[in-house]
């Protein structure tokens, strides 16, 4: 487990896209007991729903860490945020980052952190020495969430499934594969920072052999259909050796994330390709449910869409946030 000091202050900068603060929003939604408030900059139009605070107010309330809870294309640390980070260091806060750019690559931040005896935590970057994947059969049961696109709800679906299974007394562990999931779980491996040859091996280590009745719920990343992220998605499929797959989809999205004029694949295409690729390491892998982010439509439209999908594919289809995931877990209890 990572030693991440709580409570957190969540820094979201001047974000205007709700998806760009998914790290902060994930912590606020799934670990609210660890969060005090959010730090915003002028021009910010989105929120985690937590109280707005300054660094000084956060310190007075007992904050122990500042979380860089935003993301941008490429995961770069913009120089405009350095004064805020320096302020937090001077106030005695650890800094937690999920960006690709490493805090520890900035000599001035390292020097300041050493002087104030605080830590710079680049949780996106694995520190373990990893091995290549082997694909050998291993005991236990594993479920992997996959998607028609990136940022469609794979982590929220995985956490929803884990919570429902825990409430039923099932043996289950959530396995985080991205910086947001790691912040919630306190451990994991961010696979988009793993050298390509070692992605499958990283997942084999993250979700190793276990008791026969135990489920590992492995957080998916990207999509086999997204040109930027398909390599990570494929490595995850092979390393997970999943028994069950849940397809995640965002209703109403007209083009793949950050790519113009590239329609999302159909659910049928997504199911077929993910099952084919998953069966490279588990011949029995199959899709057991469909999770849809229906936030773009009314609740009645969401229910109508889910009923239509269930009729077409013979699989439970739900919005995990609106409807819960009980119908999908019902199928897992029968495995």
Automatic annotation (TrEMBL):
Residues 43-126 form the D-glutamate N-acetyltransferase-like N-terminal domain. It comes from the Bacteria. It holds the Pfam family DUF1611_N. SUPFAM superfamilies: P-loop containing nucleoside triphosphate hydrolases (SSF52540). This is DUF1611 domain-containing protein. Residues 132-329 form the D-glutamate N-acetyltransferase-like C-terminal domain. The keyword S-adenosyl-L-methionine does not apply. The lineage of its organism: Bacteria, Pseudomonadati, Pseudomonadota, Gammaproteobacteria, Alteromonadales.
